[in-house]
Amino acid sequence: MTPSPSPRSDPPATGPDSPVTPAGPLTPARPGELSRPGQPGKPVDRTARLDSPGPADSVPSLVLHATDNGVSWITLNRPEVMNAITWEQRERLIGLLAAASADPDVRAVVITATGRGFCAGADLRGSPSAGERVAGDVARMIRGGAQRLITAVLDCEKPVIAAVNGTAAGLGAHLALACDLVLAAESARFIEVFVRRGLVPDGGGAYLLPRLIGPQRAKELMFFGDAVPAAEAARLGLVNRVVPDGELAKTAREWAERLAAGPTRALALTKQLVNASLDTDRATAFTAEATAQEINMTTADAREGVSSFVERRTPTYRGR
Questions:
Q1: Could you tell me the sign of the dihedral formed by the alpha carbons of 122, 124, 126, 129, in that order?
Q2: Global confidence as pTM
Q3: pLDDT tens for residues 195-243?
Q4: 61-68: which pairs have CB atoms within 8 A and are 24 or more residues apart?
Q5: Which of 76, 158, 197, 287 is the most exposed place for a label (fewest CB within 10 A)?
Q6: Helix/strand/coil for 42
C-alpha cells in the first residue's frame, strides 16, 4: 500500500524547494528527437507509432506511449496530481513493458512524466472498490499491484531508462530505481515517504535500496523519509547522472538510442545476469554467465560483432 504524498504537504506544491519542469508530454518530433506541444520548428514525426490518446480521462491519455527509432517512450501524464498512479495506469504500464519485451522492433524503453513530478506514488483513490478487509487482503493487494509493477521493470527484456523530471516519492521512487539506468533533472528529488504515513516501504523498496546504496544508507532514507535532492541522489549512487532540467529529454534520447543501436539480446542477458548476481552465490553466477554466453553466441548480433572485429569495421546490430 503506497499512498501518494499530498500535493500540499509531501512534497509541497509551492515554495522554494518545489521542483519545476516544463509542462506537456514528451512526443516524437523527428526520428531521434522529442518535442513538447507547441514548440516551433519541431514537427511530429508521422512515421512514429503513437497510441491514440482517446478521451481526456482515458487510461491511454494518462499513460502516453510512442515508439520512435526503436525506443518505447512511456510517459505518465497526470501532472495535476504529480502523476500518482491509479490501478488502471499501473496495469497499462505493466502491459507496455511486456509489449516492449515481446516486440523485436523495440530495443530500449524510457519511462518519464509530465509536469513538475515524476510520480508521487500510488493513488489509492483510483483503486477498485472492495468490501470489508480481512487478513491477507493488503499483502495480496501489494503482491498483485506495486510488486508486479516493479517486477515488470526488472524483468523487461529491453534496457529501461528512467528520465526523472521531478519528485519521485514512494512507489514513484521505486519505479525509477528499478530501471536499469536513472537520469535525473536537477530539480528532481527522491522521497521514501512511507514513514511519514506510519507505513512499511513496499513496492520493492527494501529490496532495491540496500542493493543500490547499502543497508545503512537505505535505513537512513526509510527511517527519516527526508527528501533527497538529485545531486545527493547521484552522490549516494541512486542515479547515474544529473542534468539540467532542459536537457533531460535530450540526454534520455541520446542514451536510449545508443542502447537501441546495441546488441539487444546481449543487453537483455547482461541485465538478467547482473540482477540475478545480487541474490546468488559465485558458482551459480558463473554457471549462469556461461549459459548466457552460450545462448548469446547463437544470435545474429553476436556473429556480427565477432565478424566486425575480425574485419576491423564498425558493427551494425539489428537486435536479432
A1: positive
A2: 0.81
A3: 999 999 999 999 999 999 999 999 999 999 999 999 999 999 999 999 9
A4: 62/86, 62/88, 62/89, 62/92, 63/89, 63/92, 63/93, 63/96, 64/25, 64/26, 64/27, 65/96, 66/27, 66/28, 67/103, 67/105, 67/106, 68/28, 68/31, 68/32
A5: 287
A6: coil
